[in-house]
Every structure is written in structure tokens, then in C-alpha cells.
């Protein structure tokens, strides 16, 4: 491989240095193996006890016991005590940096790793089998009243941010540059610790960096496709690059400067600074001299793609702080932030021009550009639909395996596409968007394939009839089964509708939460999942926090096919479980109105043990299970919300539940909180109260316009300003 010139190494090192500065080190949880309690105790005394003494027991001791935790009395032997769950919590708090609290000295990474190593090893020796978990960064942990009490608005506290590009943005960037060239792999993936995928701190480690470099070279190879004929360099590559590829003539300084300028403009949408020109022109020249014109040029072009600015979203601001201690994002930062908030593409020419001519220097100017992007009918805005997909979570229906024999024509993709179309249909009208999405009985049913499916069904029916006429005895016991029927049956219809959208019965369907896609997404392979459905309602509509499942708890319902789901969930009412399940059960059980394919039902099918025992042949051999229809209970109650208009309200059906929720101001405000997280890419903090309240007022005053809400967020203080030396929530 040709030698890389020093400037390329500096570029690579700058990326790694920025990664280290932008995120805390990820502490590995190596595994230890202990054969006896004595071995574990020796390692505890050596590796864990000193760390706890230096950083933890000052607050968590017998006298103070903050958080009801006395570490001095916590038994290191997890097998003979009940300390396993407590140690799991300690490991999680330390490993994720939640403890020690902000402002207190933190353990060195090696010390934390040693403690985690002991704890994981001891848990396995004790048969507890807990491993280090990563805490879910739930923005709902900020109390709702702190954010929406107009009488008390904390000062803004959002700090500078460095974010890596989302997988979609990176794919669009490399796709534009390489025009779909094969061999470019996706280096990024969501970390799973946040409500939405494009949130949290940058995640750039060594394997990711290596893939970025490989991709950059692949892009550069595509950018320099050429051939040499009769001593002349020809090809579709830009003329600025072709000038460097001549094997017979060294490039001039002017040609090198032109190539550098072209690549900067192509990749970063700006001209190189004088300092960058002074660094990259000699860098290109040395690489070409060392490795030849082709390889040397490609490494030079790849180096631009490895600049931090090409991989990260820099939102740090600049200039002197204003009277409130804030600095405003630079116009160029605003342009990229706006483009990436709504699209997967870099800023268009109009945004770049606005940044260069003062159009983004004022809040009003930013709001104007945001509305232009939102109103442009020709502009692809995939992130808006993606918000609703991730907010409702209905796209997870694609990942839930369903037993084919239970519903042969189940088509999760068609169901998800139907809900996509419903969301877009409501967004097109842009009035009372949340309320409509929660209450409308309008629906699309296989809107992309209904016509084609009808034709297939007609052909299949004609074929069946012809074969039956020709072989009546063979078809005597056979009945025609139409392909695709499971799709429309999921909505309670007897056929595909001729007109889309269709109005479903108002007492059976109301909004996305009664769409088959959402119901399937929040189900298992063979059953409903009222707990997951209730957790979604509690967190996404009521703004509550459901604690993580304790590591020592085996969260499984009893296997009792003769009982209804509500009856099997009775075990969750035990005192230890009910602390969490009281937040979920009563708002999830109303959705028992539908089966796990999303079909409306009036009874639940369960096993009939007595009839099954009698279902035998003459020799006493079982002829299979017999089922019965059990009465369906769909009643629920809203409790522990912290809102007097909702607490204590009983509901009889899921339709009644969602209509009560859709009429709630709190639910609307919680929706605004989630829109904030998605479009700003971080959890809200108390200092965002002014932004959230203003965004909610704008949404309400506009009659529930999503465009107005998003424009308000994208021109807000939280979007445009940073407070130096302040940590911003994930």
C-alpha cells in the first residue's frame, strides 16, 4: 500500500481526537471467572472495595444511605444474599456515568472496568447472570410541570453539541458522491439508548473509523474514473481531477488548488480556508510524488471525506456571548442543522445562499427558511414521516414473526405502508394532526396493492372454478380461499375497498393505536402484549417513566392457555411487580379488543381443558385441543398521571381510551416533547421550558399544524443558541 503523507495522518488523528473529546469512553465489562466465594472476595477487596470507598460510600453509608443504599452493608456474596439486584444497579449507575453525580470526581476508566469485571463474574458464580446494561435515556425523567409551568421558566442551558451523521444522511452523502457505487458500507448504527434513533452522543470507534476510511477511498476511486488514450487523460471525472491524473506531467500549484477547492465544495459545500489550502496542496503533491498520480490523488480526495466536518454535525456556535450568556450558531451551522432536521441531504443552494447573505442571522429568517423547506412540494422530507414511524413504533411490525398457519396471508409490510399512507394523509391536511392520528376511523387498506390483488384473486377464483367443474369429486370437500384476504380482514372488511381511504366502523377503530400495524408491532409471535402497549401509552402519551425491569426478575407470564391474558397478568399485581405494572396494565389492557394480528374481536379464544380431555378417539388417543370463547374485558383506567383532568378516569374500550387521551392538553404537550427530541436530536432539559411552551402555543394557535410546530422548534432558542461550558442532555 502506498505510504500516506503526514497530513493524511493528521486528518485521521483529528477525527479520533474529536471522537474522544465528544463522548465519554465506553468502559468494557470484561468477564471474570470465580470458582469459589473466596476467589471472588479476594478480587472484590482488590478491585471493587477501593473504588467504592473513594467515590461511593461517602454518600451511600449507614448514616446517610442516600437513595436508600448503604454500600458498606451490601454483601459481596450474591449467592447467599439478595444483593444481586442492588449490585446490578451499582454497576449500571457507574458504567453509564450516572454516578457519581455531576460535579463529583469520577473513577478512572480502568477502576470502573475492574469493578464491573468483578461484579459480572460474581453474578455468574452466584447464578444471577446479570451483565452490564446500558440505561435508557428517557427524556420523560424531567418532570412535566417543570417544562410547562408558565409561572416558572428556568433559564436556557443548552450546551454546544457534536453529533455524528445519521446512517441515512451518511448514505445520502456517499450515494451522491459515488452514485450508488458498490462497496460502500454503512459505518453507523443507532445505540438504542434513546427514544429516537438519531439522538445521543457520537459513536466513532476504531472499527467505525476504519470503515469510514475505506468508504472514503471507494468514493475517491469513483470520483477519479478515467482512462489514458494516446497520452491523454479522458473520463467522466471532473476536469479538476483529470488534470492531476496525467502520468506524464506533474500537476501545477494552480491545478492542485483547483482540485482541492472542487473537493471541498463538493463534500463540505464551502471553499477551503487559506490554512486548509496551505495544508492540502502540499499534501496532494507529496502523495502524488510518493504513490503516483492515481493513488496519490485518491488519498488526497479521501482525506477531505475524513475531515471531522464531513462526518460530524458541528453545532457549537461562536462569537461573544449575549446578555443571556448564549452564543448563536454560525449561519453555516444553522443551514446544515435545518437541512438535516428535515431531510437526509446537505443544504440546498437556497439555504447556502441564505447563510452567506444574512438570511439566517435572525430567528425570523430561520423560521422563513424552515417553512420554505416544509412547504416545498418537490422537496423530499423523509425525516417527517420517519418521526411518526419512530414515535408510534408501528414499523416494528416488520420484525414480529407470525406463525404462517395462523394467518397465511399476513403481510406486515402492507400494514406498515397503510399506516404510512394514513400519516401522510393527515399531514397533507395539517389540521389537528395529533388528534386526527389518535381518533380518525379513516384508513387505507393495502393501498399500494389492492387493485393488483383483486385481479389476482379474480384469476385464482376463475382457475378454482374451472378445476372444480372439471374434477367435481376431487374438489367436493375443498372451498375457495382468496389470496390476500388476511389484509382486509385485519381491518374487519369483507373485501378490499374500491375507494381509498375507507371509513371503518367508528366503534371499532380510532387512529393509529387501532391500526393493525401498531397492534402487530406491540405483540408477540402468538399473542398480544398488553404490557408493551401500556408502556407505550404511559411514555409516549402520558409522559411517564416506567422503570427498567430489575435484572433479577424473570419477566415472563405463566403459561396457562386455558386463561385469558388478563387472568395471566394477575401475577403482575404482586406487590413487588405492581409498582411498575400499575403504570402499564390498565392503559394497555383495553387493546385486548384486538387479537395479535390486529383483528377486532368480541371474545378471546382460550383452551378448554375439560373438552380437550374428552376429545379422544375410541382407543383413547387425543384428537387435539379444544378451545372456547372467553368473555372479553376491555375496561381500563387512567391513574398516576399527575393531571387532574385524566387521573381516575375509567374507560370501557380502546376507542374510548384514545378519544379521552386525544382531548388532553397534557397529551398534546407530551407529543411536543417528543417532537422536540426528534427534530433537535436530544432530550429536553429544564432550560428548554421556554422553547417547549412557545412551540405548544404555536401548535395550538395554528389549529394543530405539524408544519407550524416543527418550524417553531427549528427557529427556537434551543435550536439556535448554545451556552458555552454547559453539558447538553443526550
UniProtKB/TrEMBL annotation:
<dbReference type="GO" id="GO:0046872">
    <property type="term" value="F:metal ion binding"/>
</dbReference>
<feature type="signal peptide">
    <location>
        <begin position="1"/>
        <end position="22"/>
    </location>
</feature>
<dbReference type="InterPro" id="IPR009056">
    <property type="entry name" value="Cyt_c-like_dom"/>
</dbReference>
<feature type="domain" description="Cytochrome c">
    <location>
        <begin position="25"/>
        <end position="123"/>
    </location>
</feature>
<dbReference type="InterPro" id="IPR011429">
    <property type="entry name" value="Cyt_c_Planctomycete-type"/>
</dbReference>
<dbReference type="InterPro" id="IPR011478">
    <property type="entry name" value="DUF1585"/>
</dbReference>
<keyword id="KW-0732">Signal</keyword>
<dbReference type="Pfam" id="PF07624">
    <property type="entry name" value="PSD2"/>
</dbReference>
<keyword id="KW-0408">Iron</keyword>
<protein>
    <recommendedName>
        <fullName>Cytochrome c domain-containing protein</fullName>
    </recommendedName>
</protein>
<dbReference type="Pfam" id="PF07631">
    <property type="entry name" value="PSD4"/>
</dbReference>
<dbReference type="Pfam" id="PF07635">
    <property type="entry name" value="PSCyt1"/>
</dbReference>
<dbReference type="GO" id="GO:0009055">
    <property type="term" value="F:electron transfer activity"/>
</dbReference>
<dbReference type="GO" id="GO:0020037">
    <property type="term" value="F:heme binding"/>
</dbReference>
<dbReference type="InterPro" id="IPR013042">
    <property type="entry name" value="DUF1592"/>
</dbReference>
<keyword id="KW-0479">Metal-binding</keyword>
<keyword id="KW-0349">Heme</keyword>
<dbReference type="Pfam" id="PF07627">
    <property type="entry name" value="PSCyt3"/>
</dbReference>
<dbReference type="InterPro" id="IPR013039">
    <property type="entry name" value="DUF1588"/>
</dbReference>
<dbReference type="InterPro" id="IPR036909">
    <property type="entry name" value="Cyt_c-like_dom_sf"/>
</dbReference>
